[in-house]
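Appendix B, Record 12. Input sequence as logged:
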Amino acid sequence: MKSMARAVFLMWTVIFLIAGCGMRNQPDWVVYHTDDDGIYLYDRTSIEKNEKQAIVKVWSGALLSDGYRKNRIGPKVQDGTLPGEMAALSIVRNLETMDCANKKYKISIVVLYDSDGKILLSGYDEGHPEWKHILSLLLQEKDAAVMRTRYKTDASSGWRDIVPGSHGDLLRQAVCES
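Logged structural output:
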């Protein structure tokens, strides 16, 4: 009888574990900006807030427009600045941490996808030449200025100022003020 009770207990434990694994929050992508370059979103379910320090972690993303690929990525691929597979770049996802009180941010992870969902590049190493080219390409002029002046902020921690009116500022407003 004891072994039967144990078997039933074990079976129910496994069932609840399996059922619990399927109950993860599905992404809830919210559009926070659109322009000629694409659609910019963040995943509402990924937001982690530290209220005491006014720090927010969030997955953000961009669905790049055909015009962006043709006019901004295409020439960089043709001149060899970017590798050939980047011509198919369609989706960008970033794990970002924002200091809402001080209007600063840092990027932890960048994942680049083609339109079929194939990962073209993932990780993040700002010092690597390939990432420098990609980041300067992906960031708008207002945002890219932050990359060039990074060391005027805190170089050791990776925190950068959020440029007013930039995509980063629009994301900050969406996730910090919600």
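The beta strands are 29-35, 38-43, 48-50, 55-64, 89-99, 104-114, 119-123, 160-161.
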